[in-house]
Amino acid sequence: MTFSVTDQKNQNDLKNELQNDPKHSKLEKLAAALISRLLGVSIAVAKSGFQHGGDAGPAGRQGRRFRLECKKYSDTTGLSDRELLGEIDQALARDIALEAWFLIATRNVSEQLRQELTQKGEIEGLPVVVIDWEDRELAPLAALCAFAPDIVKTEFSEEAGKLAYALQPASVNTIEMLRRDLQSWCLGFKTLRNNSHEKLRKIWNSPKESNANLGQDAAGGAHTKRIRRSSVHQTLNNWWLAPAKIDSPAAVIGWDGVGKTWVTLDWLIETIGEQPIILVVPSASAANLSSISETTVKQFLANRLYELSGVKDTAHWLRRLVYLLMRPTDEGPVLTIFFDGLNQEPSIQWLQLLKIMQSEFFSSKIRVILSTRKHHFENKLGSLRGLISAAKSIQVDNYDTTPGGELDQMLVFEGLTQANLHPDLIELARTPRLFALVVRFRDRLIEAGQITVHRLLWEYGRDTLGVRTGRSFSEEEWQAWLKEIAQKYRNGIKEYTTKSLSESVSRPDLKESEIYARLSDVIDGRFAETDLSGNFHFTSTVIEHALGVALLTHLDFVADENFTSLHNALVEWLDPIAGLDERAGILRAAVSILVEQDSKPLVQVEVLVTAWLQTQNITDDHRLELAALAPNLIDALLAAIEHSDNDAQASARHWAVNALKAIPRENHHAAATIFDRISQWFKVISRDIYPHQGADYEKNRSEGFIRRIGMDQSKAITVAGVKLALVDQYDGTRQLTAPSIIEGFPLADALPIFEAAAITLAIRNRCEGWDALKWLCLLNVIDPDEASLALRELAERIRQQQPDPGINPGLPDRIAALLLLLTGQESDEMDAAMIDPRIDRWYTYEKDYLADPGRSFFALEKRHTNLVLNDTE
What we know:
By secondary structure, the chain is of the alpha/beta class. It contains 40 helices and 15 strands. Helix 5 crosses helix 7, helix 26 (about 580-595) packs antiparallel against helix 27 (about 600-615) and helix 37 runs antiparallel to helix 38.
């Protein structure tokens, strides 16, 4: 009902009537009588004099313990904040179990004083209620008078009674609100509710607060890259809005790392306006609940309220809890309690605790949400079948992979799609906790394709991000366990019962709860799965990862750290593993782990990558992964080419080359590493000793080497300042692959390759790969001018060098001429023709080339291309 002008006049007149009466005691008696009838409780008025912080109170009658302080002041008389605050202290000193302190005033209590009194009450854990006078709306004290005009007439005056009666129609709603606010179950409820909501918001928005309160970073509000798990939210909404199931707990269950805590907190934040007092309780907080009874549960909840308020003591909050739980059912629940991570404390009698919370004392007053892992819920808790009001199971799954679904939405935040990830990585990335590791790799500027499943698992084991809340394995223990299951697998043990799986993670110094935590990590982390017989077996990914770890450990103990020794040790270790696909998977895992470790000897990586590539029937997924990891495996891929010379290993060589070609051409570090190693390939010169060719071949061959370098024997030699190795035979396969590897890189930095190739060609009269190198230079669009200038300068430096004893004096000029021919510039080609010493004079440039360039067996020079193209004969 609206507050009319007449109502306003009646209220003003009532205030004047109350203020102008000279007897203060009349207001005390009036207030006591009105509150007594409103609450249905007898109230005694204190004697004059020292009144222990109040003029009246029920003194424990009917379980009520509050004090009334009455101030019959005019509008011009100020209320003393010091006096009123002191009276609160006096009231508490008299009765430590005081449930509330009421101030009744015939004038307006200023906002500043109201705040001081409220803050004082919060500090003391004591609700403060102010019933004062407002001039611009219906005043609380006027409404209280209108509630019982007969009392006003009897205790104060007939005129005041008439005015109070006139205000009755406008006061109905205010009176009901006042009656509710003064009930013991309501006093302080709003403050506690606000405090609990503020604490929840801090947990949701601050990783530090979340970690301090829950032992994990579940602060979803602090992360902009998050999605709403709509199906879980809807199921929780349905549970919340089902009044017939008010005592049924909501069991939020799922595998390890799917975001059970996160999604529950998100829902609580979303529905916070509908929630009563919210208590977020990590399971560790209940660890001291050794026995479960109604008394211990009350004590436990009182402790949570004490932690929430930070004032008084547990005894005080136990009394307050009892008051709060008197709340009528139609007012809704008093508490929403979220027990988080029950599986972390498997020794607690959770089922009995939930049974107590369905007892008469707690029934309909508390809504319970719990989160736990799937195995714990089904096996340890028996799916909570022992409850009268059955639990509502709410399944939290991994991100779905449907187009535009949850995984796609998360990938959009990272600028990725599922196509950017390895197919077998997608299944792991669906797990929210492991997806955080994908983001961690991205933060380290690692491309999506380089995030392999085994790099992810290795990072999971290290837990440098701290994603494994309350992890049961340390990094060293995790690796030791992996090695143990790898050894058992090699020994033929591939199936486990729950008992044998538990034994695999146990240790004599671990408590039962710690062993179960490890077992839960393995099962609910989905590292082990059940078959139709109910036995567990480890997933192929985990087996490969474990065997990869074990293999690396084995290689660490090989005495001679050279390629041959390590390769032999590798072959021997893999010998019991029959399946070629399985061997490839193990090698793949070992390589990814080594990339992530980044501390093992380089030769280990070279051996593993070579063996991986040489495995038969290697899948396309493996090849794609290898290409993605190429920037981290440059030396190893080049080594694989070096150790895959024969035809049987052509596939390994081909895929190593393809992986190297996938390296971004702007990667200068990669270019430098590749150029340096490939230049070594051209520094090995075959003497082409083939006895079956006959005596004439051998005579010409030997005389040619002696004519050019003064010797014909396999040994180390230096020519033009470059150290070379003369060998009996060298098929040149590596040199043939070199041009395709360096294609696309700036060639000005590849001078060591061109220099070594030119020297080889000048000494041997043949160099595999030379023609392809020449075409690279002729078709160079990356840095043609820079490369040409660098080649000219190199040619000039070589010409200026004095040849070593025994070396043909014309050899430096021959090398320089070959380098000049690489530029494709006419002036350089002419200079090359002028300085070429023609060491082998069986043929002459003038007679055998210039006379007819198009039909000469000499390589066509660029300056003569038009001549040849226009030749019509």
